[in-house]
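Lecture 7 notes: from sequence to structure.
We start with the chain below.
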Amino acid sequence: MRLSKPGALIAGASILSLIAGCSGAEADGTTEITWLTTDNQTSVERATALVEAFESEHPDITIETETRPEGTQGDNLVKTRLSTGEMADIFNYNSGALLQAINPDETLVNLSDQPWIGSLTEGFISAVSTENGMYGYPLGTTYAGGLVYNTAIYEELGLEIPKSWDQFMANNQRIADAGYDPVIQTYGTTSTSQLLLLGNFANVLAADPEWAEQFTAHNRSYTEPPALAGFRHTETLAKAGYFNKNFPTATYEDAARMLAEGSGVHYPALSTIVNAVEMNYPDAVDAMGFMAIPAEDPALASATIWQPEGLYIPKTTEGEEREAAIEFLNFMSTQTACDVMKEIVTPTGPYPGDCELSEDVPDMLKDIQEYMDAGKSAPALEFISPVKGPNLENILVAVGSGIKGAEEAAAEYDQDVEAQARQLGLEGW
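Predicted structure tokens for the same chain:
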């Protein structure tokens, strides 16, 4: 296995052609294929380990791993290579609504006939599918959006996990009376202001299963229930004074510390925060739990799930190279591949494929698994709709800071969404 240097693929068409020419049958009878992955350290280490394990079991296939940047630059590179027919034989990319931007029916190999499809969760299948096919295998774990909380404080105060918003507010008062910050907010890292709203989306779908489809068609609005709840929750907590006093400047790293120390009890966050807690406060990981954002109707309380990126095969991969690429995806469903990924990357939620969480994972990940097993989960909005306004985090900072009310902010966000939907050229806007 050979690894190209990060950034080496940002070049002209002649260089891309040369790289593409590396794939194919070698003189010794082996088949060489390429895998385009992102250039961050974790992705590179994971790809290197997976390829080494695969090649040890498949001596007739070699894989050269190439890298691309993350973000917009890397996204544009993927689209360019697909449009010019110069894509690597395997590549990892977004799942969900963003996948539709690369026109999978026209550019990717349909994998719906593969033997491992029955092991995939419905959430992931829907995130990598169109009406005409299923195109990806999961690379990594899911992660959830909701409330990460300190279980030790809950035990100390004899609190039960709330399912309704009224129960949650009652818990917050008990916590405040005991001298702790009930809800951590970190507007110094502005993106985190969104989680009370984004994490509530499974509750929106539970109340109105057609909401995402109708929202994309411009028939639903954030100024109306049930979606308005995310703005109202932020306003209600702020007015009650339940945030930490330094919330305007506190950062994501501060939240990890406050959770670990127990000075703050609830944090609206993605379950990926388990990595920050485990890295800096390993003794505190066992005191972390996860709960869904409480709903107005306690019967609806559900966890919002983000899906991992997928591994895809472009249609330009043909013949022996396509067979080798499919063999690699088959390998990804084996226990060997699961063990490799668990060793390299700490899980942030349940796996959406053949891998299972180990017994020794943090309890908060088991909490997420329980929501999924009970059918109390749903995909985040970004996996079923391409519409999201770019100013949501700043709007919610204004709500949490007492500058704007929930209804005013929701109306402003509806305008933000409309501008973005028109830019995408969506019908009905």
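Points to note: The first strand starts at residue 24 and ends at 25. The domain at 13-141+308-344 is CATH 3.40.190.10 (D-Maltodextrin-Binding Protein; domain 2).
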